[in-house]
Amino acid sequence: MIFGAIVAGGIGSRMGVSGIPKQFMNLGDKPIIIHTLEKFILCDKINYIYIGVHKDWTVYMDDLLDKYKIDKERIFIVKGGDDRNKTIMNIINGIEKKFGESDSHVIVTHDAVRPFVTLRIIQDNIDMAVSYGACDTAAPAIDTIVESNDGKIISSIPDRRKLYQGQTPQSFKMKKLKNLYENISESEKSILTDACKIFLLKNEPVYLVKGENSNIKITTIEDYKIAQAMVKGEKIEPNFN
Amino acid sequence: MIFGAIVAGGIGSRMGVSGIPKQFMNLGDKPIIIHTLEKFILCDKINYIYIGVHKDWTVYMDDLLDKYKIDKERIFIVKGGDDRNKTIMNIINGIEKKFGESDSHVIVTHDAVRPFVTLRIIQDNIDMAVSYGACDTAAPAIDTIVESNDGKIISSIPDRRKLYQGQTPQSFKMKKLKNLYENISESEKSILTDACKIFLLKNEPVYLVKGENSNIKITTIEDYKIAQAMVKGEKIEPNFN
């Protein structure tokens, strides 16, 4: 079976807006997380969609599903963990309690604050994870990236043609992800901000799925402005004189 | 002496707007390149400012200086070269013809399409280049960066805390930059998109100057939209319900 896992465990402080996690802010006529959820609902290869939200916001999330008339049959809300990977593990535990363990379960993990993910990206994720066990969505890097070990002098400027900006979804054979995660140390876990790194740490291959520059993560107020312009389909014509 | 070098040699095709290079598009009430130039004019540590523009646009550039009533006493326009580094070398040759060679000349090279550079960034560049010979402006990386040698499988996910997004200015002791550049092979020159890499290739240290996320490069139509919002000082209030 294929499971969507929308990760929204955070209570978002970077936006500089108090009171409400950023995934619940409106974009156009509905909250960011509802836009994101609708992309997953569109994909009929996905059997069930889990949403991991901070424990203080599970009731609010459920109310949103009602308010925006989302069919709840395929959707489960679970409590988030202390970090992103722990939220994913909570979701996996929820799935396994309900649907049992299976080598063929695949989980498509996605940031709630990336509402512009496309159906093509989700489908490619499913195909790659089914075929190879793990994949990450990434788009060719635009900026020159500079590496510095001490923050003072440049150590290297890696060849940009080999660099990609990591996005989500990140998709995995669920049981494998869980087993690998359980076999890394607590200190390693505490610094792992990225689920794909769990595979890399254990020398397991992670395949690339082609991302899109439009698949932005809404983290700052600037991102939010861009996202608003994108939702409006705003056309700002360049002017010359 | 300290020289500003505003690099605008391109005729910009990525914007999808034909007819006019992007540095000449208006932001608010004046062209992008005029915004950029004004930042350099503000810095009184800079003795002269050179602008490298494509040969077809030098007259247009000169007309812009008149139109926007820029005092031309400190400003020279020179023809750009085939790539960014060649434009910089044309500027250096222009400077040396007029002011002679000197070990103490410093050049502050900057993208014409980064109009949001700050006076603080320019001044830090000057101080660093005077003290250490070479520096690059960079801001901590926001995105997770993924490395792939073959474009299919992830080779590594470098520690984000060591990664920076390269910006400009990039500033150098002029004579040293020129000497290093003259001592690299033609094939190396052809793949060098970044002036700092000239120093790295020759194992010369390049120091970091703290950039700002607002110091964006206007390359795509999306960048242009963001820049327009920034110039307007547009306040888009988040809305929740």
Number of helices of chain A: 8
Shape of chain A: globular
Largest two-chain interface: A-B, 57 and 55 residues
What number is the mean pLDDT of chain A?
A: 91
What composes the largest sheet of chain A?
7 strands, mixed
Q: Calculate Rg of chain A over CA atoms.
A: 18 Å
Q: Level of helix content of chain A? A: 25-40%
Strand order of the largest sheet of chain A: 5-4-1-6-9-7-10
The oligomeric state is: homodimer
Question: What would you say this structure looks like, in words?
Answer:
The structure is a homodimer of 241-residue chains. Chain A has a seven-stranded mixed β-sheet with strand order 5-4-1-6-9-7-10, sandwiched between helices. In chain A, strands 2-3 form a two-stranded antiparallel ribbon. By secondary structure, chain A is an alpha/beta fold. In chain A, α2 links the parallel β4 and β5. The radius of gyration of chain A is 18 Å and the shape is globular. Chains A and B meet through β8, β9, α7 and α8 of A and β8, β9, α7 and α8 of B.
